[in-house]
Amino acid sequence: MSGNESGYEMIFCIINSGFSETLMDAAREAGARGGTVMRARGTAGKEAEEIFSITVHPDKEVVMILVPKTIKDAVLNAVYKSVGMGTAGQGIAFSLPVNKTVGLQ
Amino acid sequence: MLKKKKKDSILPKDPIGSETAPAAAPAQGSSAPIKLELLITIVEKKKAEFYLDLIQSFDVNFQFSEPAHGTAKADILDYLGLADSDKTVIFSVVRSDRLDELMYTLDMKFRTIRDGKGVSVSVPFSSMIGTSVYAFLCNAVETVGGVK
Q1: Between A61 and A4, whose confidence is greater?
Q2: Which of A26, B13, B38, B48 is deepest in the core (most CB within 10 A)?
Q3: Is the pLDDT reported for residue B61 higher than 70?
Q4: Domain tally for chain A?
Q5: Do A102 and B119 touch (CB under 8 A)?
Q6: Residue A55 to residue A90: CA distance in whole angstroms
Q7: Does residue A39 contact residue A17 with C-beta atoms inside 8 Å?
Q8: Which has the higher per-residue pLDDT, B74 or B43?
Q9: Is A61 within 8 Å of A19 (Cβ atoms)?
Q10: Do B99 and A100 touch (CB under 8 A)?
Q11: Which of B62, B64, B123, B128 is closest to B91 using CA atoms?
């Protein structure tokens, strides 16, 4: 189950609600064309919150951005700088390899 | 929204092992288990039901959809004459041997249906646990038929 035939990667960003615009501005500057935003709800153990001194806001947004592999790192870096864990957006981002795509033209 | 397909709708073309044997055992006439992929399809909200039904007809037993919205700005939406950017994201578990056919069909529909434009991408599964779950996701009706 390997392979990344399409040359694209799907970047998933999980951020505090209300930060998708900030994220997309940063992603666009890095070369992304657009994204799709879904509402979500975050959970975290109380103990972990105390240990890491992090407050988890339950209202989240999940932003999916499909990008060519060549700009994946640039977009991830831009996302991390604009809405990463050290910011109010408290975002995490990761990418998944995409095997096949349709509908991009 | 969770959509479950009726068992009698489509029979598998290439049934896999049995409940007593692990799913990874070679199926009759093939040397490897059927691989699965997660298909992520983003479409206009009003066409979501149509695409859910279409994808389901390709041996897809499990899919769910989530409301979402695009990130195009208001001025671009106005320029394109679009009222809103409401979307639906459909997550479907698809057999890899049906994937090409399904994506070809989706591509045709994206191109030909009014307001039916969308994007679909597939992400491979790297692992899975549970024989019967695997058989369910593969729509291996003959495999689970003997299980009470």
Answers
A1: A61
A2: B48
A3: yes
A4: 1
A5: yes
A6: 9
A7: yes
A8: B43
A9: yes
A10: yes
A11: B64
Dist CA B18 CA A51 (whole Å) = 47
Nearest Cβ partner for A103 among B72, B96, B118 = B118
Pairing of strands A36-41, B36-44: unpaired
Distances (CA, A) of A88 to A30, A42, A54: 21, 15, 11
Contacts of B104 in chain A (CB under 8 A): 102
**Spatial contact of B72 and B123, defined as CB atoms under 8 Å apart:** no
Q: Show the domain range for A15.
A: 8-97
- Name the residue facing B69 among A6, A37, A99 (closest C-beta): A37
Q: What is the ipTM of this complex?
A: 0.82
Q: Is residue A3 in some structural domain?
A: no
Closest CA relative to residue A10, chosen from A55, A63, A88 = A63
Distance CA A82, CA A19 (A): 9
The verdict on a CB contact (< 8 Å) between B67 and A3 is no
pLDDT at B1 over 60: no
Say yes or no for a CB contact (<8 Å) between B124 and A100: no
A103 is a domain residue: no
Q: How far apart are CA B34 and CA B23, in angstroms?
A: 9
| pTM as predicted | 0.79
Tokens 């977009």 -> residue: A75
- Give the chain A residue nearest B35 (alpha carbons): A1
Contact between residue B55 and residue B94 where contact means Cβ atoms under 8 Å apart: yes
CA distance B21 to B26: 10
A25 in helix, strand or coil?
Answer: helix
CB A98 within 8 A of CB B40: no
